[in-house]
TrEMBL record:
Keyword entries, A-Z: Repeat, WD repeat
The protein's name: WD repeat-containing protein 79
Matching Pfam families: WD40
SMART domains, per the entry: WD40 (SM00320)
Family annotation (PANTHER family): TELOMERASE CAJAL BODY PROTEIN 1
Annotated InterPro entries: SWT21/TCAB1_mRNA_Telomere, WD40/YVTN_repeat-like_dom_sf, WD40_repeat_CS, WD40_repeat_dom_sf, WD40_rpt
Amino acid sequence: MTDIMADAVYEMPVQSYVTYNFEKSAQELARIVWPNYHDQHYLKGCYWSPDGTCLLTIVRGAGMHVCELPTDLYSGDVVMSSRPITPLNPAVSVPEQGLIYDACWYPGMNSTIPATCCWLSSGHEGPVHLWDAFTGNLRCTYRGYNSVDEIDPALSVSFSADGQNIFCGSKKSVKIFHTSRPGREYVKYDVSHPAACIVASHAQPGVVAIGSWKNTIELVSQSDGTFRNLCKLQGHKGGITTMTFSLDGFKLFSGARKDKEVICWDLRVPGRPLFCVGREVNTNQKIAIDLSRCGRYLVSGGTDGKVLIWDVSQNVTPQENMQVSMNLM
């Protein structure tokens, strides 16, 4: 199973997608809503599958759900403005077994190869789980331990760009597992502050960014099974909660809690932000950012219920391209 997963990274399908113009008004294409009971169900995160056919969602109190997207969103050439809003229904659901901290797809995920269809999740006081996206069954676990031989829960999880390693960020270290070796065998890289988020560069394999609760980002290079420090980036006012690399790997975008700026770092000249864009973040929540598949548009949520979109194709401070208010209820 693992050999198939590793090989699939280099045989990713070339999927065609409808071209969206974010310079014009946004169009709602699909929707799923969870009822807000007394225990407050709310969405904690959405993750596109690497092949673009599925959406992984994490709902507080309701677990994790994989929703299959309407095929016309990635098989046609255009989307008509008269297109009806498609209701999304979970194809696979995994009940919540405690607070979920983080999740990520296997980077070589291809719906035509079932062995590659899986995702990782980390949670409170538990190991990292690898879940089957077809059945919702647990495939295996990866267990990190602290100095007194207790399970050290991962605050953040990420695959390496080639999918052969798993990075688990905890309060005092990042533990590096080999994907094909579940259990408690790992290499440990010590960090000064809790590793709140981890992201690997696909354009520059081996380069990994580690964001901490102490407002800093550590850029490292994977070599000889562990990490080697490259540099540290400082500029945020709060703990780092979200990061993404540009498609060429030369830039890193980052956001933090209680910090109203998204910073773009030019990694060719590290240490000084290339530009900053503003958003509303006045809580400790993880307010995510992401790049469009073409790499041109940066998208961010906000605690004010708005989604902001910027054109970041030029190395200058971008103007806000679009603002969308989220009123789904």
